Amino acid sequence: MYEQISHSMLNRILDELKPEIRARDLRHFYTRLGANFYAIYSLFYQLYGKREDIERQMVRLVEVMAINYLRRDKALKKLDIERERNHNWFLSQEWVGMALYSDGFAGNLQGMRGRLSYLQELGVNMVHVMPILQCPQGASDGGYAVSNFRDVDERIGTLDDLRALSSDMRRRNILLTLDVVVNHTSDEHDWAARARAGEKKYQDYYYIFDNRDIPDMFEETMPEIFPETSPGNFTLNETMDKWVMTVFNNYQWDLNYSNPAVFIEMIDIILFWANQGADILRLDAVAFLWKKIGTLCQNEREAHLILQMMKDCCQVTAPGVLFIAEAIVAPVEITKYFGEDAVIAKECEIAYNATFMALLWDAMATKNAKLLNQGILNLPSKLDRATWLNYVRCHDDIGLGFDDADIVQVGYEPFSHRRFLVDYFTGKFDESTARGQPFGQNERTGDARISGELASLVGLEVALEQGDQEGIDHSINLILLLHSMVMSFGGIPLLYYGDEIGTLNNYAIMQDENKGGDSRWIHRPVIDWERADMRYKRGTPEQRIFDGLKKMISVRKCIPAFADYNNRDLLQTENIHLFAFMRSNPFQLGDNVLVVGNFDASPQSLTLGELGKNVSFELGRLRDLYSGESPQLFKDQLVIPAYSFYWLSDSMT
Ligand code: GLC
Ligand code: GLC
Q1: Residue 605 in contact with residue 642, Cβ under 8 Å?
Q2: What are the boundaries of each domain within the chain?
Q3: CA 328 to ligand 2 centroid distance, Å
Q4: Which ligand places an atom closest to the C-alpha of 130?
Q5: How distant, in Å, are the alpha carbons of 18, 292, 312, 314 from that of 339?
Q6: Which end of the chain, N or C, is less surrounded by CB atoms within 10 Å?
Q7: pTM for this predicted structure
């Protein structure tokens, strides 16, 4: 629809642009701006329409988009156009990611360049390099407390190192993902320093209050994110003698998005990193972007409007760049971060599938897939042009954020079920060999989450200590089983560095005073490259895990049915230990892959006939694509060994 008001405003804005911008060749910029301006204007108006300076702010916003467009490298602009043409590129099964801390993985950014071949050996072609920006010397929440959004932390390298890494990666066809911490800054950021010094302009960048009146109202409904290390959501700043909103740690100041200047600063930062060659930007803690008294201050409608606006603006300047939403929230809320539209992602093209992750851990602990099934059955469907990041572990804790109704539906009581899971993963439960640690325990609410390396959580640490060969086999099989699920579910699998060689918990790091209080550090490893070399020694856990994952990755890349076109059907089986779904090749009828995982310690059977007429296979031709072998069958009963999986197909190709 042609919209007069926004169009005439756009014309006025273009007239007001600085002459040096007007003089340049902005053809693509203008066509994209024309296409997106109505949306940007409407969103901006909804959020900031009451302000007298709205038009001045809009001019500034358009200027920021134009300047960053002019600064954007030719090669990146070419890529933008290619990706506009081939806009489903990221739904392909060919992408496999890994998240890593560059210092833990390779010492620093330069070291990373020397380790790209290791990633390629494994088959990883998308790397999330965890926070690299300048942050405080002491505690910095793993770099998520940023003190300068435009410079790399000197302990990790320089901006030039990053550019060199990004061009090396591009040559090798590896996508680069970087973080933009949009919700807060470190208290050492210049904006915070100026706010402390009394500059009103910068005090307005944050939520700062003279007394406890408003903070107390907020506290009535806001949960605590780090109840042990940073209780409450406000911190008294003694220099100003004022209360600052600090939802995460007390040194992370929440940004105030009801101020358009903050939004515009952040767009400038997003586009800056797009211009450094990032293919994907991970927007941190997006659920928290809008605060309202009387609410949880998560998932507010305005947070979605801000993300839509960020997407629209990025589409004008750097349309090839994708966003990942890091929103670890309730299942019904997560899919909203794709943006509520019929087809296209209007907010973030990619979102962490925290629901699936937590459900997989539930299946592992209970040895059955009841809740996993139920939870996935109720996971709201996803837009066509959006995809999941499916993962088993990451740098954060495992939150048990299942839907209570689902827990009840499968016959558990929510409180005691969660208690069981925490006990199980921290090894308190009798039969458990898990070595996790509690995280974020809240005495008041009884909540707790779990930290720990994948290998330690599935029992490898205990089995190795005890020289228990069967235990070692089980834990390796579990590591492969969990990965087989995230590799076939639909979406981009995201491995976590060190898991590919079975890295165990690092307890020594808890002695570090800047890390000690936060158990997530036990699973943020420094890679032991001598151990990594054990991947070449037959029979070692390192070799078995590494080669297992490497094979899984290479097989995944050849299965078109694993691309993400909402081409997955969950299958209801009579056997509670099994999780099964069908993937179908959207481009070739009849090319289906049956995925089934057995979470039990004994072999389990699946009667193929019971799965309905949509699941019809030529039994004689059935083959497991992962192992290349025929599965065990008794008549039409498929037998799945303990802790293992099949990717079955009867197609001859
Ligand atoms: C995200 C990060 C987490 C961090 C938090 C605050 O959730 O993944 O590590 O603590 O944001 O920035
Ligand atoms: C909370 C946040 C999530 C973050 C985590 C870090 O769960 O919702 O964004 O990853 O804390 O522990």
Answers
A1: no
A2: 560-649
A3: 6
A4: 1
A5: 34, 21, 12, 15
A6: N
A7: 0.96
